[in-house]
Design goal:
Elements lengths: L6 E5 L4 H12 L3 E6 L2 H14 L5 E5 L5 H15 L4 E4 L14 H26 L5 E6 L2 H5 L5 H21 L4 E8 L5 H4 L3 H9 L9 H12 L10 E4 L6
Helix pairs in contact: 1-9, 3-4, 4-6
The structure holds nicotinamide-adenine-dinucleotide.
Length: 248
């Protein structure tokens, strides 16, 4: 088990990539604290995680990562529950896609606030507790779109490119505390987020993926686990692409 005795906070873990990471982390021996946009989805996810890993330790609550008070409360509650925070996965993310000239200022702000500011706020809240331990690891969920850009996603692409800068700067700031900070940049993954795309668009995207398939959430979870655990003990400030060759 790669995470025995560790405590991990995972944001946006009621479904998709966050949920897959939570399940994998539990199987690897971590105690896992999850948050999601709604109380109900967090509770349902907890129940399902405990069904999958009955011996697991799971804490779940609603927390909006764009709100500082929610981030502080989530980190504090998880620390109270488990006594340590070793790992933070800033996974929560949203899209509000449309071409830039049609994009409302509120849709730009909402995506930046959840995807980018959320990682800043949550990291600030968790690092205080992480510094009590000997080491820590933070993994931010970027995207191939943050590396390549994408028409119809200026807000999302900016947030995900911003996470790359945040990751590199945080890696430099926290290295002296033995806290590593890395990011995963997935390509297209089969989750609710991509289910929202039209079949025609998905078929078009598929043509440009050398491995000729979308990733499963579990594929991304494995990369998150690698960066979070001791196997990546000398890796910090890096962006790990998990994109089927879409961007090389
Ligand atoms: N699915 C993809 O193809 C893909 C590709 C690249 C990157 N990503 C990124 O991976 C992450 C997870 O994506 P997914 O496809 O699993 O998404 P999803 O829509 O399936 O799940 C999103 C999760 O985030 C939570 N969430 C939403 N807003 C929140 C908020 N304000 N505060 C806290 N939690 C909130 C939801 O409750 C849910 O648990 C996101 O950051 C996304 O941008 C996804």
């Amino acid at each position: 088990m790669k995470l025995r005795g560790k405590t991990a906070l995972i944001t946006g873990a009621s479904r998709g990539i966050g949920y897959a990471a939570a399940e994998l982390f539990l199987r690897e021996g971590a105690a896992v604290a999850i948050c999601a946009a709604s109380e109900q989805s967090a509770a349902v996810a907890k129940e399902s995680l405990l069904k999958a890993v009955p011996a697991g330790r799971v804490y779940a609550q609603a927390a909006d990562v764009s709100q500082n008070a929610d981030c502080e409360a989530f980190a504090q509650n998880a620390f109270k529950e488990f006594g340590t925070i070793d790992i933070l996965i800033n996974n929560a993310g949203i899209t509000k896609d449309t071409l830039m000239l049609r994009m409302k200022e509120a849709d730009f702000d909402a995506v930046i606030n959840v995807n980018l500011k959320g990682a800043f706020l949550m990291s600030k809240a968790a690092v205080k507790f992480m510094m009590k331990g000997a080491e820590g690891s933070i993994v931010n969920m970027s995207s191939v779109v943050g590396q390549t850009g994408n028409a119809g996603q200026v807000n999302y692409a900016a947030s995900k490119a911003g996470l790359i800068g945040l990751t590199k700067a945080m890696a430099k700031e926290f290295a002296s505390r033995n806290i590593r900070v890395n990011a995963v940049a997935p390509g297209f993954v089969n989750t609710d987020m991509t289910n929202a795309l039209s079949e025609a668009l998905k078929a078009e995207v598929l043509k440009s993926i050398p491995l000729k398939k979308f990733a499963q959430a579990a594929d991304i979870a494995k990369a998150v686990l690698f960066l979070a655990c001791g196997d990546a003990g000398y890796i910090t400030g890096q962006i790990l692409a998990v994109n089927g060759g879409l961007y090389i």
